Amino acid sequence: MNNKILIKNARAIVSCDIEDRVYYDCDMLIEGPEIKEIGQGLSCDEATVINAKDKFVYPGLINTHHHFFQTFIRNMESIDYPNMTVVEWLDKIYRIFQKVDSDVIYYSSLTAMADLVKHGCTTAFDHQYCYTKKSGKELVDRQMEAASLLGLRYHAGRGTNTLPRSEGSTIPDNMLETTDEFIADCERIIDLYHDPKPFSMKQIVVAPCQPINSYRDTFIESVALARSKGVYLHTHLGEGENELMMERWGKRTLEWCQEIGFVGKDVFVAHGWELEPFEYKIVGDTNTGVSHCPTPAVLGGFPILDMKSMQENNVLISLGCDGSATNDSSNLLDSLRLAYMMQAYHSKARGTSVTPYEMLKIATINGAKTLGRDELGSLEIGKGADLFMIDTSVLELTGTLHDPKNILAKTGVTGPVWLTMINGKVVFKDGQLVGVDEHKLAQEGEKVWTRFINS
C-alpha cells in the first residue's frame, strides 16, 4: 500500500518552528503520519503527488476548547448570550441541554468536526459534560465514532456536573452524576480509547465541568485518576464564577484549584478572562495552560484577555472555538482573526500587541504543547503530517502574498481552506470532505436536530 505523499512546488511552507522558518518554492515528503523531508527538488517515484502550486502551507490548527453537543442550539434568539450573565445563561441553557441524547451527540459532533476540518483544524479537544438520564454514558464513544469517520485527531474531555441545584448549582437534577459514576466512566474510556503513543488519533482528558457546579471531591478524585493514568485535566476557570466561589469557599477559583492540585503541566483551563494580574504568575509558574476563546468573550461583553501580560509571566496560551451556544460556528480561522483583532484593540491601552503570526503560533504550536503533543504543531522533519493549504491564486488576496506568516489573521482569511491533511491523509480537498457522503449526513443530522429541538 502506498503511504507516501509528495507535496510539490508549494509557494510557501510556514513552519511555525522555533526559528520561524518559511520555505519558499519548496516540496515536502510525507511517509505515513510523518514528515520526512522539506526542500527543493524532492522526488519519490512511489509517492502520490499533490501539486501545491500557488498554495501556502501551514501547520494544522489545534482547537483546545469546544462543546460539540451545543452545535444543535445555534442561531437561537431565545438563548441570546449577550442579554444575560454567565450564571443566568447557564441556568436557562441547561433546561435545553437536558434533552440531549446519543444521536444528538453523534450528529452535532459531526457537524462541528466538519466545520473545524474545512477551516484547517487537524486536532480538536472537546469538553463533553452533557450527560442526561436518557443519553446514557456512551457519548464519548459516539464522538470517537464521528471523529474516525471524518479523520479528525480527537482529544475527548470527559466532563461532569455533580452538585445539585438545591446546593447552589445551575444543573437540573436529571443531568447530575455522582462522583463515583463519573470516575468509573472516565476509567472506562481511558482504558478503551486513550493512546499515548506519538501520532495517536485518540486521547482522553479528565474534565469536570466547572468548580461551581461540582463537589470538591469530584475535582480531588479527578486529579487522582488523571495522575494515576497519565492523562490531562481540564475545566472552566475565570469565566465569571469567582464571586460565587468567594461566597461559597472564601477564595478565588485558581486558589481553590491550586489547593487540591488541579494545576500543573498536565492541566489546561478554558477562558481565564477573570484572572487577576497577580494570578498570571501562579498560572505561569505552575505551567498550567489557558485556552483563550475570543468569540464568547466578545459575545458576552467580557474583558479582553491581556495576552501580553500573561506571556510576560510565561503563561502558555492556546486557542479555542468554545461551544456553539456562545460562538455559533466551529471555524478556528475565524477565532484566529477575532483573537488578533481583540488584541490589536487592547494594545491601544498598553502600547504593544500580539502580531498575527504570533496568534498563528498560539493556534498551532501552543495548542500542541497545551495538549502534550510534542510531535504536532509545526512543520518539521519527524513531526506529524497535520497541515492545511490555502489557494493564493484568487483575486481577493492580490497584494498580500509577500507575507505568508501574517496573512491569515491580518487579512481575514477565514473561509474554507483548499486542503486539510491529518496524520498524512487528505481529509478535505477543494470543497469536498474525503470518503464521506456529506449530503446524506447533513440530511440525517437535520432530522435529528428537528426531533431534538421540538421535543
From TrEMBL:
The keyword Hydrolase applies. One of its GO terms (molecular function) is hydrolase activity, acting on carbon-nitrogen (but not peptide) bonds. The keyword Hydrolase applies. Residues 56-427 form the Amidohydrolase-related domain. It holds the Pfam family Amidohydro_1. It comes from the Bacteria. Keywords: Hydrolase. SUPFAM superfamilies: Composite domain of metallo-dependent hydrolases, Metallo-dependent hydrolases. InterPro entries: Amidohydro-rel (IPR006680), Metal-dep_hydrolase_composite (IPR011059), Metal_Hydrolase (IPR032466), MTA/SAH_deaminase (IPR050287). This is Hydroxyatrazine ethylaminohydrolase.
